[in-house]
Structure of Mannonate dehydratase:
Amino acid sequence: MEMTFRWYGKEDPVTLEKIRQIPGMKGIVSAIYDIPVGEAWPLDKIKELKAEIAKHSLELSVIESVPVHEDIKIGLATRDKYIENYKTTIKNLGEAGIPVICYNFMPIFDWTRSSLDYELADGSTALIFEEDVVDKMDPLTGELSLPGWDSSYEKAELQTLFDHYKKVDHEKLWSNLEYFIKAIMPVAEASGVKMAIHPDDPPFDIFGLPRIITNKLNLERFIKLYDSPNNGLTMCSGSLGAVPENDFPEMLRYFGKKNRVNFIHARNVKLSGTRSFQESPHLSETGSIDMYEVIRAMKDFNYTGPIRPDHGRMIWGETGKPGYGLHDRALGATYLNGLWEAENKRRKY
Ligand code: DNO
């Protein structure tokens, strides 16, 4: 595995100087944040980002995300022009030597939580999802926005989008995804770029909008849309593991053996209901996911790709982007490195 860390660019209070001091840190997961969703990313901007990261002896290992324009997800006639732009971005990223692109296909909203600063028993704060709270939220106010969302929409746009999505059920979303995948994958293959779709977070419908990248059956359906290792997955333990019916380590092993795991997000969640959870520290005993099993699964298919510690709590008085502080994510990276070293050595003896 290659240990990586998400960096939100020059505005991020967690600087590259700090990230490179985390033991074993090799790569950066980042994006270009000032290009409107749907436009092509110019090669020179990509090269600039890569060079900035290289100055700190780190590598730009993954782009997360190249966002998918809503017209593609809805299946509007305008989608073709956005798909052409997406193909240009993939081609340019390939030319700059970026090996992996993470993206998602969630309608309108990216990852969603009911609170960003829930106080845990130890005084740290974490992100949580409580179904009954989310059920009462009004998604049309335009006030719902989370740190790190690829895109968020103004109130007026939201109503139009919701109107469009009235005609998009799960099967329609699948066919729009298939259309997109079949169009972009030949370019990804020719450019040497591995695509890694991120599961829906949480992995069930919210606000009446369909979500389809949610469980083993659907991931299997997804990889069959286009049979190529370039058409792969981001296996995110916290997203898929947020519902009791998903056995994350088993799914990781299964898709890993099929050579479809192109990126891994590791974090823990503590389930507090069938559709409610708290983000917990990475350590197995604090959450519902057995992180040692995750590492064992990775070893079972000899994973050599990128992994990043996903969201951390806010600890030691740190302030900043909820989920994306330095300290708890650095602890997460160190813990994962420890499990990995131990499992590697155990297998050699
Ligand atoms: C949350 C992240 C997601 C992810 C996108 C990928 O912290 O895992 O925002 O970056 O869904 O497109």
Observations:
- The mean pLDDT is 95.
- The CA atoms of residues 21 and 330 lie 9 Å apart.
